[in-house]
């Protein structure tokens, strides 16, 4: 029997229904755990997990010279691995690769306010970081440059104001443009689906 070709996780991936059904249950179990252990109130679980994802992804990406999709997928996988999963642990572990890829390419489906929270976080960080080396190694800034239109320009502008004489390639242009095109397409499809329901 021939092996299925491996998924190119460096390219945008279509929405995976099987991975989604697992992730929906993983996030449900994680939110129940947060509430049960008094970490946050029920209405705060979405924001808490969004901020945790940004924080943990940023910490992982700080070890990279610049953002790559492979590093981003690994960061998503590490975040999922650390979540309390309850009864979903065995199923997640069997299908973790497709779940990691699904979260990496469709993050905003699982974190409702992902874009505005990421934008607010990186803008606050950008002005508070002490120097150019801190800006250059910050993983949250790398994540923002890959995800948000204009973030890479903001980062390079701040670097120039701090005395940099050249721009830093925090994320390759082709990676950034491919990701932005994918995210805008996803947002358009999500909006179209919402309009069909009204």
Give an account of the 3D structure.
There is one protein chain. The protein is an all-alpha fold and 198 residues long. It has one domain (17-197). It has 11 helices and no strands. Helix 2 crosses helix 9. 31% of the residues are buried.
Q: Describe the biggest sheet?
A: none
Report the mean per-residue pLDDT as an integer. Answer: 90
- The unreliable regions are none
Strand content: under 5%
Q: What Rg, in angstroms, do the CA atoms define?
A: 18 Å
The percent range for helix content is: 55-70%
Choose one word for the global shape: globular
What oligomeric assembly is this protein in?
Answer: single chain
Span from first to last CA?
47 Å
Count of spatially separate domains: 1
Number of strands: 0
Question: Order of helices and strands, N to C?
Answer: HHHHHHHHHHH
Tally of contiguous helical segments: 11
What class would the helix/strand composition place it in?
mainly alpha
List key phrases describing it.
69% helix, single chain, 198 residues, globular, mainly alpha
Draw up the topology in text.
Blueprint: H1 17-36, H2 45-61, H3 69-82, H4 89-94, H5 96-105, H6 107-110, H7 114-128, H8 132-137, H9 139-147, H10 151-161, H11 173-197
Helix pairs in contact: 1-5, 2-3, 2-9, 3-5, 7-9, 7-10, 9-10
Summarize the structure.
The protein is an all-alpha fold and 198 residues long. The chain is built from eleven helices and no strands.
